[in-house]
Fold:
Amino acid sequence: MESVKTCTKCDAVLTRYPSGGWYCKPCHKITQDRWRAQNKETIRTAGRTYNYKLSTVQYTKMLIRQENRCALCRVEFTESIVPYVDHNHSCCPAQKTCGKCIRGLLCRDCNSFLGRIKDSAVYCTTVIRYLKRYARRFHNVKQT
Structure:
């Protein structure tokens, strides 16, 4: 007969999981959440390496080359405006890439915009024409 095991943090009776581990789910989640909050950059670095085959040195060089700004709108990257790695989806349609088709670093808005227009230069040109047409039409309209 197995002895009853309890959580060292909250004294809850532990459950044995198929993986063979004994733990209290709520305390385990708290520990994981705390670790994730304290290791955001480690998680981002691992993601860049896994998904884009992009080393820390390569990533840092890209940031320097782009002056720590989005390649499209030129907004400065901060703790709240983080860079997203942009790659050519016609080369690698999934999120995980070969590492050779990386184009640059974008802010979330610009990355989302490219995704919405499906990386289409034709569609982007159409959007520009549309905006210019209406900018001219409403340019002389007085605001009340």
Q: What stands out?
A: Helices lie at 25-38, 40-52, 56-65, 108-116, 121-139. Residues 84 and 108 are 7 Å apart (CA to CA).
